[in-house]
Amino acid sequence: MKFSWLFIILSLYVVYVHAVPYVKEGKCRGEPIVRQVCHNHVDHGHATFRWCKSRAMQNMWYFNRLHKECQKMDYFGCGGNGNRYCTKTQCMDQCRNA
């Protein structure tokens, strides 16, 4: 019985620790989980599942390697790649020398 309670408490703690950064105000919902990579093509992701809408974000940025500049894009909330940035400044700082 003690093991069950310990497991429940530990599980709740893990969920809390991983959820807190995503509920803080000002967090960029569309920020990629994988490392950001400037040389990937633009990928808007998809909105196939219900939960995609909660991560969707307009006015994100990607690095256009052909033009060597950051350009606006809309992110649909699921999938995509690492060439997705929350701000133009973040995109330029990461990809300036790409």
Automatic annotation (TrEMBL):
Alphabetized GO MF terms: serine-type endopeptidase inhibitor activity
Domain of life: Eukaryota
Keywords: Signal
This protein's record includes keyword Manganese: no
Record bears the keyword Zinc-finger: no
InterPro entries: BPTI/Kunitz_domain, Kunitz_BPTI, Kunitz_BPTI_sf
Domain named BPTI/Kunitz inhibitor: residues: 38-95
Signal peptide segment: 1-19
PROSITE patterns linked to this entry: BPTI_KUNITZ_2
SMART domains linked: KU (SM00131)
Gene3D superfamilies: Pancreatic trypsin inhibitor Kunitz domain
Protein name, per record: Carboxypeptidase inhibitor SmCI-like
Organism in which the protein naturally occurs: Drosophila albomicans
